[in-house]
Each structure stands twice: as C-alpha cells, then as structure tokens.
Task: structure prediction
Amino acid sequence: MNRTQKLLIAFLSLVVLFTGVVISRVWIFKPQSTVKLVKISIGEYDTEIWGKNYPLEYAGYKKNMEMAPSPTGYGGSVKVQKAEMQPELYTNFKGNPFSKDYTEDRGHPYAMEDLRESKRIGPAAKGACITCKTPYIEKAYQEMGWGFASKPLTELMDKAKHPVNCANCHDPETMGLRVINPAFTEAMQKRGIDVSKASREEMRSYVCAQCHSEYYFEPGTFKVTFPWDKGLTPQQMYEYYSTKPSGFAQDFIHTDSQVPVLKAQHPDYEEWQNGVHGQFGVSCADCHMPYMRKSGQKYTSHWITSPLKTLDESCSPCHTQGKELLFSQVKAFQDNVWQLQHTAGQNIARAHGAIQKAGTNSAANQTELANARELLRRAQWYWDYVAAANSMGFHNPVQELNTLGQAIDLAHQAIDAANKAAGTNSL
Result:
C-alpha cells in the first residue's frame, strides 16, 4: 500500500467518523417538535390539548400566570387598584364603575376570572363584555352574529369556560395566525384593509390589535365598534366621537360636573401604530413574543410580558446599545409620561369640582358652563387615552407627552370657563 492510498484511507475514515458523530448528535438531541401530534379540532379551546403539540409555547403561556410588578414600577400583572397610585381616579370616574374597581390587568389566563370577579359588572351587564375575554367569541358570533352582544353576560359566561388563549390567534388546523374579533375586521374594512390578505408580519400585530384597542358599545345593540373612521390618533378619535356615531354620546355622565365623559379602553394598538416601532414595521410580537431557542429548536415565546424581561431576545436583535442604556431609556420615557399623566389627572379632578360649583350658581352663564364641560370632556379623553394604555407611554412617547400637555391645558381652560360662568376668579 503506497503513501497516497494510506492518506486516502485515513481521510475516508475521518469522514465516516465525523458523519457518525453528527448523526448520533442529531438522534440523541432530537428537537421537541418530533412529539406525536394530536388532532386539534375546530372549536377546541382547551390550552392543554394545544399544549400537547406545542409544549414550548404552552410552557410560555403558563408563565403568564406568574404575577409580578413591572421592571420600571409602572403597570405589571399584580392585581392592585390603580387608584393607589392615582387617587384622582375616584373623582374623575364618579358616576362610572371604574371609580369603584379599576385593577391592574393580570394577563390572558385570568381574563375570564377577572371578568367574573370585577365589581364593574352587574346584573344588567351584556354579552358584549366577553368579546376580548375568551375564544368562545368565535362560536357566539357564528351562532348569533352581533346578537350575542345584547345577551345577558351571565348567560354567555356559563358557556365561555376558557380565557384568552391559543384559539384567539391561531387556526387549529393550519396554525396560521387569524383574527376572530369581528369588530376589528369590520373596523379595518372601513379603513380599506382586508385582514384576510394580510402578510404574516402584519398578522403578528393584528392578532394583538383585535383586542388591545379602543372601542365602544353601540347604543341599543351593544355591538362592539372601533372609532377609527377618522384616524387612530386621540385627536382624530375624539372628532369621530363628536359626531355621536349611531347615537353614542358618552360612556357615562359625571356625577358632579355633569360632563358627558368618554372612557378610553386600552388603545395600545393605536399608540403603537403611530409610534416609531409601528412606523418602522416592528410588530407587537417582535417585542412582546420574541423568538427563543431551546435544545436546538426555535420557537415564539408565548410569555406575553414586558420586553424588559426578555431584553436579549426582544431588543438586542435591533438595538446594540446594551441592556443598561435600553432599560434607562424606557424608564425615563415612562417616568416623564407618569409625571404629566398624574398632573393631568389632578387638574381634571379640580376642573370637575370647579364646574360642579359653578353649576350650583343659579345665575351662572349657561353658555359658558357648557363650554367648560366641553373643554373638560376633551381634556379627560386625552388624559384617559394615555392612562388607559398599557405601555405607560412607551409605545409613542412623543405623541403621549403632547397629548397629556393638551389635557393639562384644556383642564385649566375648563376651570377658567367655569369660574367665568359663575362670575368668580378662583375656586
């Protein structure tokens, strides 16, 4: 055997050895995606069934049950009354159940439990309240159309056994992303957008937007409607509400000031859509449901939480500034928004008092008093638009600081108008 033959045999031996090592490692460390799949039927809303096929995603979903404060001190998933930090809520929502119970959201797995326990729900509550609490909305709408919205809430809660979960966002047969809230689909159609033709990246935001958006109940039918006909900024939505769509004039009348108040409902999608991340095509899931890796398998995290808890996966793919700087930037944004939000809320509470006092004066100028109420109605909407959102301003700090600045100015104008109506210069 000559030298060339010996080298060839040695080379082939190394190739065989290397191939054997690779095959053995692949065999030993099989990714979890090789688990035996079970058939998931249409209308299956039990997360444990879905979890048998997708154990990594299911483990992430279950982490949503771990309640914890926000890393920055704002928001979080601990069930505390928001009025503990903002006592002005008691004044600003007089005449509305939010003045009695306004707890921090605990997350998707608690959606139905929190609804049942809420002190804002009474015997007259309607079925529309389950729209964003459970995947059962799919069956309810298929069987009754929007008729489900006017049914007694208790009747539908007995049928809706599962909270927000996999079925809200995934087709059980294809696992493709989907939207099941008809209110979102209808609102997007009015904007000229066909959700069924959306790209996967667009759907990674739409599945969140179908619930994390502002809405109101149409008078009489209680149909859930998104106020987007004129645009998604707080100013554009206020102009839409000013037209009294379908006869909707207000969410409640304030007990003291008699202002017809609009109550904002978590406009998270609207904030994001007009913010820097939304404008540059960064989806909700990119930050709140980042890609993860385990045992060689890439999967989407279903622990839907603050990106500050998953900085490496959520932020580092785009930002290279380092964890400490990223955290300090978010904290600074939220600190500044909180300061103005708290100031705006306090001034709005003062304005309610000023208008109440002017209203007791029989000689008060009614035209000026009506002007004061309109100014305060707009001020409270702007303040609540920011206060009701979950990002504490981070989704769009430039817009939110501007909106709160307008709220503060409008509240002062309302106080001045109330004093002018009563012929006084101060409270």
User: Anything to note?
Assistant: The mean pLDDT is 93. The longest strand covers residues 291-294. The beta strands are 216-217, 224-225, 252-253, 260-261, 291-294, 297-300.
